[in-house]
Write a structure and sequence with these properties.
Strand order of the largest sheet: 14-15-16-13-12-18-19
Bound molecules: nicotinamide-adenine-dinucleotide
Strand content: 15-25%
Low-confidence stretches: 1-5
Mean pLDDT: 97
Number of strands: 23
Length: 490
């Protein structure tokens, strides 16, 4: 096990933490420890924020063009480092290799997208009350130090969605990676961003309650951009509220996948398997509940079970693997608890529901299909975040839309259909931030991504993703200092 002694990245260099406590990281495919990082405390967070605050004074006044070139350089370094980063992600995070390769490529493209978008970032000039003598300007300014709190399921990509726009807008950052994936995060930042001025990007590793909450509480961190669970988002919102911090919260989902009566069963099941099993179902936009017309129910269940059985599960370090392990034992326990609850309430496990044969080490779970489910079961209401496909019948599309909206969360929803009237009705009526018609999970760099309801209202990607890291200032400028006739006395 590699106990790297100086795990924090502050002010452009690796530094030792103020504490001896460490977070051990294991390989989810084997369960074996593979390294450790410092469990940073308040003093370390203070140090990182001081560095980021100092760096902000210079970084905010660099030109957008200069920042763009530096972000392109980071993107180029990311692509050059991709083979090493992909291997590191496979060991630490556990997705299948093609999914890891996409993650690194998409992270690099996010850097390039925001490098270019920010070159055009602008405020506006307003019509003034006295057009000859007054100027009214709307300025878009960086906030200062952004606290970026990141989950483990896409440790580089979801960091890139914050890092790229925040930097392009002129902010500096202190990053708190997930305690499950700090090694690859440190590796990326240290190897691909060390050409930036010292202190512009800093990393403090550690726990959520320790380093994470110290960052949220820090008075010199006006923005907290966090992706994670609803419970953590609620905790952060509670802690940050008295300080009126600007919060971007990208929280959990319970995305629905609806097959319309006109859809092909076989093609829809191919889409469903991808939507539900990518990253072992550990995507915030994973298809977590499936609604199919009653007349198609049995055929969809049968086809989904056959598709799930054909998924090649194993250590993603090997060849020909479609699906790796879950990220930690506690997540596998939650999946087993949801399946146990569903069974106890009358659901049928059509396939899966177990640890796959021969994969007792690590945190593997078999792709699972459930039928006979309803909204009285946790698997249809709480985020499962695992490779589970629960399928429920509906009789009319009204019913399906009501099921989609019957959730406190509102991240995304997928519809399989080629019926324009039905499709329009669906996207008009569902209360989610992203609607996929026929092609689930697909993001667009220019398309804002985020949720409604308890998922939080933050938006990443697109112009909204840049706007999230800019604050607005209105300047009313009278070119003349003369006394006005509308001042006292009346
Ligand atoms: P998590 O909420 O457990 O942790 C997320 C991050 O928050 C981690 O870095 C953690 O250390 C930190 N944290 C925990 N407690 C904290 C506290 N009190 N103060 C400050 N920071 C704290 O989530 P996770 O298990 O890492 O990720 C999975 C969750 O993320 C799922 O719910 C998933 O749906 C959600 N997610 C959402 C999106 C989205 O864009 N909406 C994308 C990916 C994942």
């Amino acid at each position: 096990m590699d106990h790297t002694p100086s795990g924090l990245w502050i002010d452009g260099r690796a530094v030792a933490a103020s504490t001896d406590q460490r977070v051990v990281v294991d390989n989810p495919a084997t369960g074996a420890p593979m390294g450790s990082v410092p469990a940073a405390g308040k003093a370390d967070v203070d140090r990182a924020v001081v560095a980021a605050r100092r760096a902000f004074d210079g970084w905010r006044w660099t030109s957008a063009n200069e920042r763009a070139e530096l972000l392109h350089e980071a993107a180029g370094r990311t692509i050059a480092a991709a083979p090493r980063l992909v291997d590191a992600l496979i060991r630490e995070q556990g997705k299948a290799r093609p999914e890891q390769e996409e993650e690194v490529e998409w992270a690099a493209t996010t850097l390039r997208y925001y490098a270019e978008l920010a070159r055009n970032n602008r405020g506006r000039v307003l019509p003034s009350g006295e057009p000859r003598t007054q100027l009214n300007l709307v300025l878009k300014e960086p906030y200062g130090v952004v606290g970026a709190i990141i989950p483990w399921n896409f440790p580089l990509l979801l960091l890139a969605w914050k890092l790229a726009p925040a930097l392009a807008a002129g902010n500096t950052l202190v990053i708190k990676p997930s305690e499950l994936t700090p090694l690859v995060t440190l590796q990326w930042i240290r190897s691909c961003f060390d050409h930036l001025p010292d202190g512009v990007v800093n990393v403090v590793t550690g726990t959520g309650a320790g380093a994470g909450e110290a960052l949220v509480r820090h008075p010199d961190v006006p923005v907290i951009a966090m992706t994670g669970s609803v419970a953590t988002g609620q905790r952060i919102a509670t802690v940050a509220a008295p300080m009126m911090k600007h919060l971007h919260l990208e929280l959990g989902g319970k995305d629905a996948f609806v097959i319309a009566p006109d859809a092909s069963i076989d093609d829809s099941v191919e889409a469903l398997a991808y939507a539900a099993l990518f990253n072992a179902g550990q995507v915030c936009t994973s298809a977590e509940r499936v609604y199919v017309p009653s007349a198609m129910h049995d055929a969809v269940v049968e086809a989904a079970a056959a598709r799930a059985d054909a998924i090649r599960v194993g250590d993603p370090a090997g060849e020909g693997i479609d699906m790796g392990p879950m990220a930690a034992q506690r997540f596998r326990d939650k999946v087993a608890a949801h399946i146990g609850d569903a069974k106890a309430r009358g659901a049928t496990v059509v396939t899966g529901g177990t640890v796959p044969k021969g994969l007792d080490d690590g945190y593997f779970y078999a792709p699972t299909v459930l039928s006979g489910v309803d909204h009285g079961m946790a698997v249809m209401t709480d985020e499962t975040f695992g490779p589970v496909i629960p399928i429920m019948a509906y009789d009319h599309i009204d019913e399906a839309i009501a099921y989609v909206n019957d959730s406190p969360m509102g991240l995304g929803a997928t519809l399989r259909s080629s019926d324009p009237a039905l499709i329009k009705r669906f996207f008009d009526e569902v209360t989610v931030g992203t609607v996929w018609i026929n092609d689930p999970l697909t993001d667009n760099y220019a398309g804002p991504f985020g949720g409604m309801k308890l998922t939080g209202g933050g938006r990443e990607l697109g112009e909204e993703g840049l706007e999230s890291f800019l604050q607005t200032k209105h300047v009313h400028w009278d070119l003349s200092p003369d006394v006005k006739d509308y001042w006292y006395p009346y």
